[in-house]
Write a structure and sequence with these properties.
The protein has about 300 residues and is mostly helical. The protein has one domain. About 70% of the residues lie in helices and about 0% in strands. It contains 13 helices and two strands. The protein has helices at about 5-25, 30-55, 65-90, 95-100, 105-110, 125-145, 150-170, 175, 180-200, 210-240, 240-245, 250-260, 270-285, and strands spanning about 300, 305-310. A two-stranded antiparallel sheet has the order 1-2. A hairpin with a 5-residue loop joins β1 (about 300) and β2. α2 (about 30-55) runs antiparallel to α3 (about 65-90) and α2 (about 30-55) runs antiparallel to α9. The chain starts with a helix and ends with a strand. It is a multi-pass membrane protein. Keywords: Membrane, Transmembrane, Transmembrane helix. This is EamA domain-containing protein. Its main location: membrane. It holds the Pfam family EamA.
């Protein structure tokens, strides 16, 4: 399989995210904004300290304004916004409905994240779209049915948009800035945004319980610090369209983890949905990769921190 390390990197990131979703009920009573701000702060510190080891040959220059803007957009949507909307949606819709809507992300990324053609419009690859459709269908089968209000559906669509933006916003700069550096900046900016929102709404802060502290630590270290780097490394190699199909592994991992920790149960349809998602991922990632994927060739830095691309 072409780009096998990149595929495995994205799959591991998806599994980390899925497992985190399954343990989220353990922090349901903890202040949402403050808890998530703490999670991203922990991840930002860990990634900042580990950056020289993660990317020893990475660029040692200030971020260009366009690069910082893209990372800030990903932090505001895919990090901070995703969590806020997810909590709001969970109050209006059952998890199965939210999961089914967000499960459309492989198809959206297969279209919007495709390599650019003439006029810079995406040129979706038929095999990627086919695989992404199968993967999304598998997600729907895994989640099954559920009830929701109209508001809940709209919020779930917002969650979907945030998840897609998390990848598309930074895909063009991943090779120039580096996956670990993008992840560190994303976490730091998301922590600031969420802390500011917590202060603005006047959240009542309290120390976390033992289970809450453990869950937040897992989210900060595994779902965020580790998963972000794994995901962005895979996207840099595969392109946003093919990488997007691997997110179908997240709901499967969430279902299995929930059954293990006691926050959910398995159904016969889980195996069928998992198999369908796996087939979809396999079809998509084996698509022709001769077209340039996630980003143009690496840029060379100029003296003032801006980038100049080779002709």
């Amino acid at each position: 399989m072409p780009h096998r390390p990149a595929v495995l990197s994205c799959l591991l990131a998806a599994v980390c995210v899925g497992a985190s979703i399954a343990v989220t009920p353990f922090i349901a009573e903890f202040p949402v904004l403050a808890g998530q701000a703490g999670r991203y702060l922990v991840a930002a510190v860990v990634l900042g300290l580990a950056l020289p080891r993660l990317e020893p040959g990475g660029p040692h220059r200030p971020l260009a304004r366009s690069e910082l803007g893209r990372i800030a957009l990903a932090a505001a949507t895919g990090s901070a916004g995703f969590n806020v909307l997810l909590v709001a949606a969970s109050r209006q819709a059952e998890p199965a409905v939210i999961g089914a809507v967000v499960g459309a992300s492989p198809v959206v990324l297969a279209v919007l994240g495709a390599p650019r053609g003439a006029g810079r419009w995406p040129r979706p690859r038929p095999r990627v779209v086919l695989g992404a459709t199968a993967a999304s269908a598998g997600v729907v089968v895994v989640h099954g049915g559920g009830a929701s209000t109209a508001t809940g559906l709209l919020l779930a669509v917002g969650v979907l948009a945030c998840e897609v933006a998390f990848t598309l916003a930074v895909a063009p700069v991943l090779r120039d800035v580096g996956p670990a550096r993008v992840s560190a900046w994303n976490c730091a900016l998301a922590a600031l945004m969420l802390a500011g929102a917590s202060a603005a709404v006047g959240e009542h802060l309290r120390p976390p319980t033992g289970s809450e502290a453990t869950t937040l630590a897992y989210q900060g270290l595994v779902m965020t610090a580790l998963a972000f780097v794994l995901w962005y490394r895979g996207v840099a190699r595969l392109g946003a369209d093919r990488a997007g199909t691997t997110m179908a592994a997240a709901p499967v991992a969430a279902t299995l983890t929930a059954a293990v920790v006691g926050t959910g149960s398995l159904r016969p349809a889980t195996a069928l949905g998992a198999a369908l998602a796996a087939v979809g991922v396999l079809v998509a990632v084996r698509a022709d990769a001769r077209v340039s994927d996630a980003a143009p060739p690496p840029a060379s830095a100029t003296a003032d921190g801006r980038t100049a691309r080779p002709a």
